[in-house]
Amino acid sequence: MNKQSYLAEMAKLLRPLSKVERDEVLLDYSEHFDYAIDAGRPMSEIISKLGAPSSIANEILAQYEIRKASDTQSFRNLLRAVRVTIRVSILNLVFVLVPFIVTLVLLGGYYFLTAALLSSPILFLIQHNFSASFFQDIFYILGLFGLGLLCGIGVVRVTRWYYKTVLRYLNYNLSIIRGRT
């Protein structure tokens, strides 16, 4: 492999980036090659020091997706950032995907609990058909509905916190892979 084929492979792998960002990365790696060649290093040593183009591209794409998820907050962007971070290392399958799925299931349970508490007055109406027992349980029903409103406020805050925490964890995970803690 030579400089041109190395950079061509990186360009192909970095297609999801914008042209400006892709050209900037390729120029940076081209300068790495030029500097090492001027220092008299053989091409094989340069390539082995830089690493495989696929691993470099995966790391750059992970950083890009995390930055994109930070800038434009959506569940889709968060899933993309998690997916690309998992591709960086096979260990990320355990250290990123498992905690992400477990916490996502817990967050889903919190959403379900909130929906159940908010819909409790309707469920009691259906169950009791405005009978006398319905009016005896009115304070209980209102209490559950109020608890549902509080859970609704909480679930919004927890979701925002969860989003930011996942992004921080992905950045932390990438920094460990790069060797910086």
Task: Explain briefly what this protein structure is.
The protein has 181 residues and is an all-alpha fold.
How would you sum up this structure, described in words?
- This protein is mostly helical and 181 residues long.
- The chain has a domain at 90-178.
- 85% of the residues lie in helices and 0% in strands.
- The protein has nine helices and no strands.
Secondary-structure blueprint:
Blueprint: H1 3-13, H2 19-38, H3 43-50, H4 53-71, H5 75-88, H6 92-118, H7 120-128, H8 132-136, H9 138-178
Helix pairs in contact: 1-2, 1-4, 4-5, 4-9, 5-6, 5-9, 6-9
Radius of gyration: 26 Å
Total count of strands: 0
The best one-word shape is rod-shaped
Termini separation? 32 Å
Based on secondary structure, the structural category is mainly alpha
Q: Would you list the SSEs in sequence order as H and E?
A: HHHHHHHHH
Largest sheet: none
**If helices are DSSP runs of H or I spanning 4 or more residues, what is the number of helices?**
9
Helix-residue proportion: over 70%
Mean pLDDT: 90
